[in-house]
Design a protein that fits this description.
The protein is an alpha+beta fold. It is about 55% helix and about 10% strand.
């Protein structure tokens, strides 16, 4: 007699209907894109948490047991209840829910869980229902065996526009094929051998699964085409076929669907191990995994194709345009890893799939100290560079394609692009105007709220205005509270909160906010810089240099690089390392010539080194930018009032004042 658990697992593998989207409250789940959105904004969610949420929603008419969830999400692998509980908690957090409120996911003691939100389904007749674990394996399937007869050979999907279905006249009625396909899936779910399948080697399981899906999809796709042909206004269109034709699920879409431009999206193809040593594959796999999981957080508003969907396309060496059409993505990130002794070199490039053009390329070298450290460093450096490139490209694209009918996402992307320029009063005003336009259209946008707050905080910290600063910080605080209520782990809001707390002299709180931002996006150099500055004001100068160095490793070409170079120069002067301070401050001015403070710091460093002419020249430049400044008032122009800093820092700062006096700044 079949157990209730087995029946539930079988039912879960056969979701009724073909719902591709679920809507509830202000949320939307897009199965095809593997996305959760709130009010149109993508909410980052881990793949397992996404699958768990979808499973609960699909089975919302009943209680889902813990055992069933483990079977459905982990496919029978042994996991602890603590692991399941953490995924449930993550799903609730993504929905703004909690174990106390249980507005969407309700726990029933000793029985399981149930989704209790009001859900609207959106169905599509284009795709057959496919079990969660196989949804990407059917992306493209060969209709015939490989020429060499090897059943384990992997096949490359062709351009969907080139896929030609079989003649409609030879196809059986659609309902018959659909019925047989459903029976086939039912038999597979009920087959006791399926459990034994989990013990096979990974490659054999993937091959068997692919062959089974091939039978299923080949049975359904021609039938759907036949039904469409019989129902069409004109049946005179000829449909060609040949023995070597390949069928993709996109083959049943209309030509208009195929020609639609891809949405803002990116895929990370599996990085290649170029070392010639297969035992080192895990290094390339680890870098690929880190990039894929972190990109979604590094690029809010950009869809990231899951690793499962990208895996079959690794090592193909085929035109990026084919990948773009097959996966419906706009950008492709690929690379190779070379390992030689204790050195690791990663070559990476960003490609636009529309025309296959290379948008960015970089060679990254690092020491092989520890695998996790290597992954974090490489991923961080790539993520920041890619983020800057994609934001700029998308901002220019939206301005070109929709100059007079911008949506909130367009305005936010343009605002971020402006913020990524070297800071000045004009850039802050321009960025804020764009974010405020987005807020008028979408008042609940966490991106827009955080964007406006960021401009207000940086206007204060960079000393652009002598008046109105208290109002700026007050308004910024209110906006950030709203943004973090809507999206508690919003990276931009956490960064701005860290800067705000620094401006208020709450350095421990500033460090905590920056650490939270790093947890969400390890490739965010601004967060490392914020920890460095707060640590500096606590008087921990050597520690601050370590944080500035981390920011520099991740963002060696970052437009905000001047901020941590400025901080590094500041710390080095207080430590008496004046030659190093001069080098850091010169680089800071190269990165942003409009910043005034490095000129004053340079004047002090040169004076301590006995280089009087250079000290006077630096001081003259500073006084032209900030006329009337004296040693006694110099600190009043600084971003953090001296009284809010630690006693240790106040003592260390005396050396800077001595340098300014030597350079000729009046008392």
């Amino acid at each position: 007699m079949t157990s209730h658990r087995a029946e539930a697992t079988k039912a879960a593998s056969q979701p009724s209907g073909t719902a591709l989207k679920f809507r509830f409250s202000d949320f939307e789940i897009d199965i095809a894109r593997h996305e959760l959105r709130r009010a149109g904004t993508v909410v980052h969610i881990e793949p397992q948490v996404f699958d768990l949420l979808v499973h609960l929603i699909r089975n919302r008419d009943r209680i889902v047991s813990k055992d069933e969830l483990i079977d459905a999400i982990w496919q029978g692998r042994a996991v602890s209840e603590a692991t399941l509980s953490s995924r449930i908690s993550a799903a609730r957090r993504a929905l703004g829910d909690s174990g106390y409120g249980q507005s969407f996911i309700r726990t029933l003691h000793k029985r399981g869980f149930r989704f209790v939100g009001q859900v609207d389904d959106e169905c599509s007749e284009r795709l057959p229902a496919i079990a969660s674990s196989d949804r990407f394996a059917a992306m493209a399937i060969e209709t015939g065996p490989p020429k060499d007869g090897d059943p384990d050979q992997e096949w490359l999907p062709v351009d969907p526009a080139d896929a030609m279905p079989a003649p409609a006249s030879t196809a059986e009625p659609a309902w018959a094929a659909a019925r047989e396909s459903a029976l086939l899936r039912s038999d597979r779910a009920a087959d006791p051998a399926q459990a034994a399948d989990r013990t096979r080697p990974r490659g054999q399981r993937r091959t068997a699964r692919t062959l089974l899906l091939a039978v299923t999809v080949i049975g359904v796709v021609p039938s759907l085409v036949a039904a469409g042909w019989w129902l069409s206004p004109s049946r005179s269109t000829s449909i060609m076929s040949s023995p070597n034709d390949r069928v993709t699920l996109a083959g049943v879409e209309s030509a208009g669907d195929r020609l639609k431009p891809p949405v803002r999206s990116i895929v990370v193809l599996p990085f290649a191990n170029l070392s010639g040593d297969a035992t080192q594959d895990y290094v390339a796999d680890g870098i690929t995994g880190s990039l894929t999981s972190d990109l979604a957080r590094a690029l809010p508003g950009i869809s990231v194709v899951s690793r499962d969907a990208a895996f079959p396309y690794g090592g193909r060496g085929t035109d990026a345009r084919q990948f773009g059409r097959a996966l419906e993505v706009r950008y492709l990130l690929e690379g190779g890893v070379v390992i030689e002794g204790n050195r690791i070199r990663v070559n990476v490039q960003l490609v636009e799939t529309k025309d296959g053009s290379q948008l960015w390329a970089e060679r990254l070298d690092t020491e092989r100290t520890g695998l996790l450290q290597v992954q974090d460093e490489i991923a961080g450096r790539v993520l920041r560079a890619i983020g800057l490139q994609v934001v700029d490209l998308e901002a220019r694209r939206s301005l070109r394609e929709r100059p007079d009918r911008a949506e909130p996402a367009d305005l936010i992307m343009r605002g971020k692009a402006v913020l990524n320029r070297p800071s000045s009063p004009a850039t802050m005003l321009d960025a804020r105007d764009l974010f405020e336009q987005a807020l008028k259209l979408q008042p609940s946008s966490a991106d827009a709220l955080a964007g406006v707050a960021t401009t207000l905080v940086f206007e204060f910290l960079n000393g652009y205005y002598k008046t109105g600063n208290d109002k700026r910080l007050y308004r910024a605080g209110l906006l950030l509270d709203r943004a973090l209520t809507i999206q508690p782990r919003h990276v931009m809001a956490l960064k701005a909160k860290s800067a705000l707390r620094r401006a208020q002299g709450k350095f421990d709180d500033a460090i905590a906010a920056a650490e939270a931002a790093i947890m969400e996006n390890p490739g965010e150099p601004w967060a490392y810089k914020e920890i460095g500055l707060s640590t500096l004001y606590l008087g921990k100068l050597e520690q601050s240099l370590d944080w500035f160095a981390k920011a520099e490793r991740i963002g060696p070409r970052d437009p905000g690089r001047w901020t941590w170079l400025d901080g590094r120069g500041h710390a080095l002067i207080l430590l008496g390392r004046d030659e190093e301070a001069v080098r850091a401050l010169v680089h800071a001015l190269d990165a942003n010539p409009k910043n005034a403070f490095p000129h004053a710091f340079l004047a002090a460093a040169y004076a301590h080194l006995g280089r009087s002419d250079e000290a006077h020249a630096a001081l003259t430049t500073y006084e032209q930018m900030r006329p009337g400044t004296r040693v006694s008032t110099f600190r009043s122009m600084a971003p953090v009032p001296l009284a809010l800093t630690s006693q240790q820092y106040q003592q260390q700062r005396r050396r800077l004042n001595e340098g300014l006096r030597k350079a000729g700044m009046p008392e």
